[in-house]
């Protein structure tokens, strides 16, 4: 079982809103997930990103693989640098 940290889409048509979640890669994008780590709203200026840093670092240490987009968000929040230091 491979665990991914990825985005789950929510919101109305043409008004996306995302949750940063930990999910088994076999489950659908907006389907079942293990834990919610934060939120991402690209429509705000600047984009709103809120992450539970401690839980995110815990999942990264357990071996969860972030998607490319989530890795970019982690870098912008400074979480990726903290993970690489540890």
Task: Provide an overview of this structure.
- The chain has 86 residues and is of the alpha+beta class.
- The chain has three helices and five strands.
- The protein has a five-stranded mixed beta sheet.
- A hairpin with a 2-residue loop joins strand 1 and strand 2 (15-24).
- The mean pLDDT is 93.
Structural features:
single chain; 86 residues; alpha+beta; 31% helix; flat
Give a quick precis of the structure.
With 86 residues, the chain is α+β, with helices and mostly antiparallel strands. Helices cover 31% and strands 38% of the residues. The two termini are 24 Å apart.
For the terminal residues, how far apart are their CA atoms?
Answer: 24 Å
Q: Kindly state the mean pLDDT as a whole number?
A: 93
Segments where pLDDT lies below 50 for 5+ residues? none
Mass-distribution shape: flat
Give the helix tally: 3
From the alpha carbons, calculate the radius of gyration and give it in angstroms. 13 Å
Please give the structural blueprint.
Elements: E1 3-12, E2 15-24, E3 35-41, E4 48-51, H1 53-62, E5 65-66, H2 68-77, H3 79-85
Parallel strand pairs: 1-5
Antiparallel strand pairs: 1-2, 2-3, 3-4
Helix pairs in contact: 1-3
């Amino acid at each position: 079982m491979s665990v991914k940290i990825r985005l789950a889409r929510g919101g109305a048509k043409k008004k996306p809103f995302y949750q940063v979640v930990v999910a088994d890669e076999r489950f659908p994008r907006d389907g079942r997930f293990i834990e919610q780590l934060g939120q991402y709203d690209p429509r705000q200026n600047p984009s709103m990103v809120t992450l539970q840093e401690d839980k995110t670092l815990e999942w990264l240490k357990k071996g969860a693989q972030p998607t490319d987009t989530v890795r970019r968000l982690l870098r912008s929040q400074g979480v990726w640098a903290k993970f690489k230091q540890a």
